[in-house]
Write a structure and sequence with these properties.
The protein is mainly alpha-helical and 228 residues long. It has 12 helices and 2 strands, in the order ααααααααααααββ. It has helices at 3-8, 11-24, 28-36, 44-57, 62-77, 89-100, 102-113, 118-126, 135-142, 152-157, 166-184, 188-200, and strands at 204-207, 210-213.
């Protein structure tokens, strides 16, 4: 962790955020427990679901993606194409592919996963249709690799300017999370998830002067529940 990152998100600030979420936010315990205990998918269905979730998350909030996920899986399990539930045709086709080819994807995933090579896993994730330059990190994290997703929130927390080149974005964000993980005993994935949830729930003020935690309850609905 660089000195600048330490000042922006200190160990004490991270612990304050984490402990407040665990005690006060309805999503805090589940989000933290999941991130602390992520394991690789054990079935093709699990991996297919992980891939579809990442495709749905791109460009929208977790809350919106959760509602779409419910509709998409209702369609898939009824034998209908994803486009009947999700109007973005190109993404819907990618979702159909992920579900129909889940056995082949799972075999390919296992071959890469057994190597333990993070770069190889990121390359594999990034080759999946509609898994992009940022969401490939999210998928790698969700299938068990201890990497952060260097999204716009984590970039801002790390003090990175808008449109930071990808070559700098991930190393800086990973350094921030790895430093806090080493200082607290949490997994890198858990640090990433705690900071992301605080941003999602609009509990953070981030600007050039620094990072401030603004605790308040009930600002946004659950990330785990689909809207009716």
């Amino acid at each position: 962790m660089t000195p600048a990152e330490t000042v922006r998100v200190s160990r004490a600030l991270y612990i304050e955020i984490r402990d407040w979420l665990l005690a006060n936010d309805p999503d805090g315990p589940e989000n933290y427990e999941w991130a602390q205990t992520i394991v690789p998918p054990e079935t093709a269905e699990h991996l297919g679901s992980d891939i579809i979730w990442i495709i749905l998350c791109a460009g929208r909030s977790a809350q919106a993606a959760r509602t779409l996920e419910k509709r998409v899986f209702a369609a898939l399990r009824a034998g209908q194409p994803a486009v009947t539930a999700f109007g973005y045709r190109a993404k819907a086709a990618a979702i159909d592919r992920a579900w129909m080819e889940r056995d082949a994807d799972f075999a390919a995933f296992q071959a890469v996963h057994t190597t333990g090579d993070v770069d190889a896993m990121l390359e594999w994730c990034g080759a999946i249709p509609f898994v992009g330059a940022i969401t490939k990190y999210q998928l790698a994290k969700n299938v068990g690799f201890d990497v952060c997703k260097p999204d716009i929130w984590l970039a801002r927390l790390a003090g990175l300017p808008e449109k930071t080149p990808a070559a700098r974005l991930f190393p800086a964000c990973q350094s921030l999370c790895a430093g806090l993980a080493a200082a607290t005993g949490d997994r890198i994935a858990a640090v990433d998830s705690v900071l992301w949830l605080a941003c999602n729930k609009q509990l953070m003020e981030i600007d050039a002067a620094g990072v401030r935690f603004v605790p308040r309850v009930g600002v946004r609905r659950s990330i785990f529940e689909a809207a009716e």
